[in-house]
Amino acid sequence: MNDQTQITPIMKQPTPPSNPRLESWKTFFKKLRKNRAAMVGGILILFFIFVAIIGPFLAPFDPTTQNQMNKLVGPSSEHWFGTDHQGRDIFSRLIHGMSITLFIGFTSVIIGAFFGVFLGLVSGYYGKRVDAVIMRSMDVLLAFPGILLALAIVSVLGGNLTNVIIAVGIFAIPSFARIVRGSVLSVKKLEYVDAVKALGASDVRIIFKHILPNVMSPIIVQATLYMAAAILTASGLSFLGMGAQPPTPEWGAMLSAGRSYMFDAPHVAFFPGIAIVIVVLAFNIFGDGLRDALDPKMKN
Amino acid sequence: MKKELLKVNDLKQHFPIKGGLLGRTVNHVKAVDGVSFTVYEGETVSIVGESGCGKSTTGRAVLRLDEPTSGEVYFDGENLLSLNKREMRAKRKDLQIIFQDPYASINPRQTVRQVLEEAIVIQNVIPPNEREEKIKELMEKVGLGAHQIDRFPHEFSGGQRQRIGIARALSVDPKLIICDEAVSALDVSIQAQVINLLKQLQREMKLTYLFISHDLGVVRHISDRVIVMYLGRIVEVADKNSLFENPKHPYTKALLSAIPVPDPKRKKERVILTGDVPSPIDPPAGCRFHTRCPFATDKCKEEEPELRTTDGMSEQHEAACHYIEELSS
């Protein structure tokens, strides 16, 4: 109690009230900025989002209007990326496809994260039989190669964009569940969880108020990295004809259509392919950077 | 007549060891193996023993933070182990715990206000319009300023955090507080402050403490009675003075001889034990201490001694040794 009388005057000095959440965000951004690749990825992602929102208004041509007179024309000043086998402007189609691609990525990751995080929390917190049942079913899902599982789901539900999102979302569940479960196992052993338990807190309160906020960073990293995988899988499904149907300007479907003209007009397949590569790469390097910035063990 | 507040009967806590291909239980760690004791209202009872003797496990089992394997825990005449989850949650109002590590025992994402408010909200002890006042009162009680109410745990020192932990425990007006190595992680000077705070709070709020510690100096300062544990069992129970001045069990004697004496000229007889504590997975038969006891005989290897009292021991002084009489002479 003596220390109080001594400490009080020091505390009253006009130190700006620091919010640790704000502070941790600051250090987080500082670390993220140091990682050059992650910054490039992040800026690219912002640019993609911008294109997805503004792009359709700026695109020079309608993405679905056919022009049979102008088929398979190479890049020119009028058609920057050339035209496809129906005479549609590839540049405009890519811009319109941007929002579809991001939409597929975001929604399927949200579906996967929602169910995966929930299952992981329940599994890690309750343990024992609940854990065994949940994690073994996750193992079953994980045992399938991703694209095969998605294919199976889409062929059961029918091939359209919504079902592709559902399929990709479902096979994202186990990876989220596993990561969350692992983090929950380490957080639930901490004494503050015991302390609220000793106060009589319900399981729901402990899980969502005390455990979930402390396992957020691996979830965020996994979500970013999974965006890349989701986009790739969705394009793959469309490429195989199971996803978006023509004339939707979905990149995977565009790539698939361009495949037949590979030798006569390589640009038809080339530009959608490059677009997929850049988007996937951007999310991957940004995710890696996030992981480095959020992982306390990587401090240097 | 003193009122029994907590009565623990033959408490056992066996943790299963899973192994093999199917994760079957292959063995048990017998962390606490048949412990019985009583805590009277308003007193401080300490449990001492070396690491792994089961003292913290006993505390956690009493609170049902880990479900005990078997036994009975009577609190105010009611068996806590027979309560269902909902009844137990309500009962937790009366039993609180203060943890060892002040850095791990508070959620880093909550301010002091949120920590204390949550405690009050969970047990719903105080109407909403009086909560603010109660929180400020709690802060004051544990020696923190009201201006620190919106700070986060990382802005406090270890001693201050421990005060927050104490305030949290007090927020629901408990009857019994289990202090699980509550001062072991603090500097010696801060330790003294926190212990004095605990004593002061005990007087003001008529609290009962179950004080778990390995620090005999602290125990001597704070306790009314002391329980000595070894390998999951109680080896000696006594009031503080009898235990420190007239220890009966050879293990207690060894433990006490390890207290440093701040007098370089005084020669002390050290009882140095050899070997390690045996594994609690397969504790020795007979007296559990026989593997390290300098006086062990064949009887010790076969027959398990019960807690008992003999001539020359004060009331309520009990030791679990076959040779109390012989050893004291």
Task: Describe the protein.
The complex is a heterodimer of chains A (300) and B (329). Chain A is mainly α. Chain A has one domain (35-55, 89-295): Orthogonal Bundle (MetI-like fold), CATH 1.10.3720. Chain A is built from twelve helices and no strands. Chain A has helices at 2-11, 20-34, 36-58, 90-126, 128-143, 146-157, 161-187, 191-198, 203-211, 216-239, 251-258, 267-294. The longest helix of chain A is centred in the middle third of the chain and has 37 residues, at 90-126. Chain B is an alpha/beta fold. Helices cover 31% and strands 23% of the residues of chain B. Chain B has helices spanning 55-62, 85-91, 112-123, 128-141, 158-170, 188-205, 216-222, 240-245, 250-257, 298-302, 324-328; strands at residues 4-19, 24-40, 44-48, 70-75, 78-79, 95-98, 176-180, 208-212, 225-230, 233-239, 318-319. In chain B, the strands form two sheets. Chain B has a seven-stranded mixed β-sheet, sandwiched between helices. In chain B, strands 2-1-4-5 form a four-stranded antiparallel β-sheet. The two termini of chain B are 34 Å apart. The chains are: A mainly alpha (300), B alpha/beta (329). The interface between A and B is medium-sized, with 29 and 41 residues.
Strands, helices and their partners?
The complex is a heterodimer of chains A (300) and B (329).
Chain A: H1 2-11, H2 20-34, H3 36-58, H4 90-126, H5 128-143, H6 146-157, H7 161-187, H8 191-198, H9 203-211, H10 216-239, H11 251-258, H12 267-294
Chain B: E1 4-19, E2 24-40, E3 44-48, H1 55-62, E4 70-75, E5 78-79, H2 85-91, E6 95-98, H3 112-123, H4 128-141, H5 158-170, E7 176-180, H6 188-205, E8 208-212, H7 216-222, E9 225-230, E10 233-239, H8 240-245, H9 250-257, H10 298-302, E11 318-319, H11 324-328
Parallel strand pairs in B: 3-8, 3-9, 6-7, 7-8
Antiparallel strand pairs in B: 1-2, 1-4, 4-5, 9-10, 10-11
Helix pairs in contact in B: 3-4, 3-5, 5-6
